[in-house]
Amino acid sequence: MANKFKILHTGGRARAGRLETAHGVIETPNFNPVGTQGTVKALGPRELKEIGVQIILANTYHLMLRPGADLIEKFGGLHKFMNWDKPIMTDSGGFQVFSLGIALEHGSSKVLSRSKNQELRIKHEEGKPRLNKITEEGVTFQSHLDGSKHLLTPEKSIKIQTQLGADLIVAFDDHESSKHTHNQMLESIELTEKWGLRSIQKYQELCHSGKKPLLYGVVHGGTHKDLRVRSARFTDDNFEAISIGGIYGDHKQLCRIIEWVTGVVSDEKPRHLLGIGEVEDLFNGIELGIDFFDCVAPTRRARNGSLYISLKIGGRKENHFAMNIKSANNTTSKDPIDPDCRCYTCLNFTRAYLRHLYVANEILYHQLATYHNVYFITKLVEKIRESIKEANFKKLKEKYLGK
RNA sequence: CCGGAGGUGGCAGAGUGGCCAAUUGCUCCAGACUGUAAAUCUGGCGGGAUUUCCCUACGGAGGUUCGAACCCUCCCCUCCGGA
């Protein structure tokens, strides 16, 4: 039977288990590399399997706009389209639709701080702000590709996700920034709840076979404890799987939010922390009972020259366990990125060569760098999984993060 | 040798009397990155004190001027064309 989640080991709130899906088993805790557009940037399925990646995350928003859900369905679903026969999770598109428009108005730090100039330029060119409109029905937004207008609703999101054939899907949720008042946040989670119920309804309408996907509800509530708890209870009451979204703030804030949610939610349901996946957060999240993570960190960091390194050569939370391949001191380095790493990149290439590839803008850099980072995170989570089985988690965490 | 063009910060290349320590691009240096509009973005890039500051600088040496990268004279060098 599909979608069977089983916890096999626990240690405090931390747990290790397995989730069965139509496309195979995922061992938990696990990390989903992000493959927004039906590809983990710079890595093919062959490399992903070689690394040991068990699941990837793709995105409803991007795929509905290009190449379109109907087209992918005609190819037999996303698995066949991209030639990946292991589990796929799709995001609902809620986050993108939010970050592409609403963020501009409300000033979401997560989105705005990084693309302010770009946003402003586009705003100027079009002569009007790109605001997305939220109504009870759904979100009207403009495509980032051609400016065309679209309406995304819970029903549409679920429909698209089933067309794509994902194993794990996410209910369509509303997003508010961390700066919102308690009242505004309350309104937001009420909308998320309504949309959640409509997502469930559509899901039940479309999925009845034994191969039906697992539907995650999304817990929101910003940094307000009562709202997070309320949202968590609602999600637990109505969904078979729990995801936590709308995460803002520092690592400690993040811990608080996770703690509130995992303290309320049923133990036997899988829990996914949306969009989070720096090393420090993986340890903290797992300690507090998270089973799944997805994050662009390893892939994006790789492309931007930030490569993960182990404790032995200076990896620590302050530097996000990463070094910068661009640094001048790598120019003549005959060392690999990380002497302890057994990945293809580290076994075969020097820092000097990788730096050269980066500086020369060569495609191979992206392949080798992304391979390393995804490998690093995948193996780290593997190690964490083992540590839970062997009741060593606390020790391992202390080794990485200190006391 | 004659004619023509030109010599600006690591490179290319603006500026042609004060708002120039000098536009811009590249290189270079550093940093950021958490449900990917991201092979992106931000900052620095003569030296020193390190709020409006000082010094050395636009091939070299003089000169004109209150003031010159910018005008004049001579010298050196590069490129193109002709002998």
From TrEMBL:
Cofactor binding, note field: Binds 1 zinc ion per subunit.
Identification of the protein by name: Queuine tRNA-ribosyltransferase
Region feature RNA binding, mapped onto this chain: 275-281, 299-303
Domain of life: Bacteria
NCBIfam families listed in its UniProt record: Q_tRNA_tgt (TIGR00430), tgt_general (TIGR00449)
Active site: 91 (proton acceptor), 294 (nucleophile)
Top EC class of this enzyme: transferase
Function recorded in the entry: Catalyzes the base-exchange of a guanine (G) residue with the queuine precursor 7-aminomethyl-7-deazaguanine (PreQ1) at position 34 (anticodon wobble position) in tRNAs with GU(N) anticodons (tRNA-Asp, -Asn, -His and -Tyr). Catalysis occurs through a double-displacement mechanism. The nucleophile active site attacks the C1' of nucleotide 34 to detach the guanine base from the RNA, forming a covalent enzyme-RNA intermediate. The proton acceptor active site deprotonates the incoming PreQ1, allowing a nucleophilic attack on the C1' of the ribose to form the product.
SUPFAM superfamilies from the UniProt entry: tRNA-guanine transglycosylase (SSF51713)
Keyword RNA-binding found: no
Organism listed in the record: Candidatus Daviesbacteria bacterium GW2011_GWC2_40_12
Cross-referenced InterPro entries: ArchSynthase1/Queuine_TRR, TGT, TGT-like_sf, tRNA_ribo_trans-like
Domain tRNA-guanine(15) transglycosylase-like: 13-401
Keywords, sorted A to Z: Glycosyltransferase, Metal-binding, Queuosine biosynthesis, Transferase, tRNA processing, Zinc
Biological process, per Gene Ontology: tRNA queuosine(34) biosynthetic process
Classification via HAMAP family: Q_tRNA_Tgt (MF_00168)
EC number(s) from the headed UniProt entry: 2.4.2.29
